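sanity check this record:

:::
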Amino acid sequence: MRSLRCVISARDKGGASPSPPCSPSPSPRLIARLDWHGRVLTGDALLCQRALCAQVRTAGGDDVVIVKENQPALLRDIATLVASRADITLRAASLPAWDMREAVSEERGHGRQGRRRVIASTELNEYRDWPGVAHVFMVERSWQEGGATKQAVRYGITSLPPGVADASRLGALVRGYWQIENGLHYVKDVTMGEDRSLIHTENGPSIMAILRDTVVSLLHRAAT
């Protein structure tokens, strides 16, 4: 949980081998154990599933999830919509104004300076049959590293309406999720060597996962 900076629940996937991108996950059981009223689920493509988003909405919560290749049609529609904003021909045509809101922010950290641009739109709400869809968005990050300009683009979908989450807040929510990725998963996978672990039998992987989560959570809590 981001506000507590700790892991509050986890479940074994039931095997040592990684799950394929669209395979069932224990997430529905974890979601069912939490009170979602007034809370927002943020996550990567693994959580970009119709059933999970519908479950969170039914439980009184909202979602902000990243869209990747595991939802190819949705990814294509969002990318096409955002690309139309840069199409000079479309912009010059006498077409009805589209809802395309933008927020730009400058960022500094870890010895580098960057720029974040968020474009949010409600134009796909009637077109895409997705549980509770209220927005689609793009987050584009650019930064200088090693004398070169680098760029990363991500697309997403959310149930938060424009009156609750404008483009700026959507960018902040996605950034908050990436902080979880950097502060938890990266530390476990790289610093603690979880991906290189040779413990694969019986309850060993689950026990080690609990120990790693506990250590990371205690270190985060001690730093606050």
